[in-house]
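Final report, closing paragraph on structural work. Over the funding period we assembled a curated collection of sequence-structure pairs, and we close with a single example.
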Amino acid sequence: MSHVKAGGSSKNIHNNAGARLGVKRFGGQKVSTGEVLVRQTGSTKVAGPGTFISRNYTIHAAQDGVVSFQKVKKGKFTGRTVTRTQVSVS
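Its predicted structure, as stored:
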Protein backbone atom coordinates (compact mmCIF):
# COMPACT_ATOMS: atom_id res chain seq x y z
CA MET A 1 0.00 0.00 0.00
CA SER A 2 1.58 3.28 -1.12
CA HIS A 3 1.24 6.41 0.94
CA VAL A 4 1.45 10.04 -0.08
CA LYS A 5 1.60 12.63 2.63
CA ALA A 6 -1.31 15.06 2.50
CA GLY A 7 -0.52 18.46 0.96
CA GLY A 8 -1.32 21.22 3.42
CA SER A 9 -2.87 24.52 2.44
CA SER A 10 -1.25 27.84 3.18
CA LYS A 11 -3.40 30.96 3.31
CA ASN A 12 -1.38 33.95 4.52
CA ILE A 13 1.46 33.86 1.99
CA HIS A 14 0.49 36.68 -0.38
CA ASN A 15 2.07 39.66 1.38
CA ASN A 16 3.29 41.60 -1.65
CA ALA A 17 3.59 45.37 -1.54
CA GLY A 18 1.41 47.40 -3.92
CA ALA A 19 2.98 48.50 -7.19
CA ARG A 20 2.05 52.20 -6.67
CA LEU A 21 0.52 52.49 -10.14
CA GLY A 22 -1.63 55.35 -11.38
CA VAL A 23 -1.58 58.97 -12.49
CA LYS A 24 1.16 60.94 -10.72
CA ARG A 25 0.70 64.38 -12.35
CA PHE A 26 -2.80 65.56 -13.23
CA GLY A 27 -4.13 67.83 -16.00
CA GLY A 28 -3.11 71.47 -15.62
CA GLN A 29 -0.07 70.76 -13.45
CA LYS A 30 3.35 72.13 -14.43
CA VAL A 31 6.04 69.48 -14.96
CA SER A 32 9.73 69.45 -15.80
CA THR A 33 11.64 67.15 -18.14
CA GLY A 34 11.86 63.52 -17.01
CA GLU A 35 9.06 63.62 -14.42
CA VAL A 36 6.85 60.55 -14.14
CA LEU A 37 3.32 61.33 -15.29
CA VAL A 38 1.66 57.89 -15.25
CA ARG A 39 2.79 54.50 -13.94
CA GLN A 40 0.80 51.67 -15.52
CA THR A 41 0.74 47.98 -16.32
CA GLY A 42 0.35 47.72 -20.08
CA SER A 43 -0.48 50.65 -22.31
CA THR A 44 -3.83 51.76 -20.87
CA LYS A 45 -2.87 55.39 -21.56
CA VAL A 46 -0.82 56.39 -24.60
CA ALA A 47 2.04 58.89 -24.84
CA GLY A 48 1.27 62.02 -26.85
CA PRO A 49 3.35 65.04 -27.88
CA GLY A 50 5.92 66.13 -25.32
CA THR A 51 6.01 62.73 -23.59
CA PHE A 52 7.75 59.39 -23.99
CA ILE A 53 7.02 55.89 -22.78
CA SER A 54 9.62 53.68 -21.07
CA ARG A 55 10.07 49.90 -21.09
CA ASN A 56 7.61 49.27 -18.26
CA TYR A 57 4.97 51.53 -19.90
CA THR A 58 5.66 54.47 -17.57
CA ILE A 59 4.90 57.79 -19.29
CA HIS A 60 7.47 60.57 -18.66
CA ALA A 61 7.59 64.23 -19.63
CA ALA A 62 10.03 64.88 -22.49
CA GLN A 63 9.93 68.65 -21.97
CA ASP A 64 8.91 71.31 -19.48
CA GLY A 65 5.27 72.35 -19.68
CA VAL A 66 1.71 71.67 -18.56
CA VAL A 67 0.11 68.20 -18.55
CA SER A 68 -3.13 67.57 -20.45
CA PHE A 69 -5.26 64.48 -21.08
CA GLN A 70 -7.37 63.83 -24.20
CA LYS A 71 -9.48 60.90 -25.40
CA VAL A 72 -8.23 59.48 -28.73
CA LYS A 73 -9.24 56.54 -30.91
CA LYS A 74 -6.44 54.02 -31.37
CA GLY A 75 -6.51 51.18 -33.92
CA LYS A 76 -5.63 47.72 -32.65
CA PHE A 77 -3.85 45.05 -34.68
CA THR A 78 -7.18 43.34 -35.40
CA GLY A 79 -8.57 46.51 -37.01
CA ARG A 80 -10.86 47.31 -34.08
CA THR A 81 -10.62 50.86 -32.72
CA VAL A 82 -10.61 51.52 -29.00
CA THR A 83 -10.71 54.75 -27.01
CA ARG A 84 -7.53 55.51 -25.06
CA THR A 85 -6.48 58.46 -22.94
CA GLN A 86 -3.54 60.35 -24.45
CA VAL A 87 -1.17 62.16 -22.12
CA SER A 88 0.63 65.18 -23.56
CA VAL A 89 2.83 68.02 -22.32
CA SER A 90 2.74 71.43 -24.01
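The chain has a mean pLDDT of 93. The beta strands are 22-23, 30-31, 36-39, 45-47, 51-53, 59-61, 65-75, 81-89. We thank the funder for supporting this effort.
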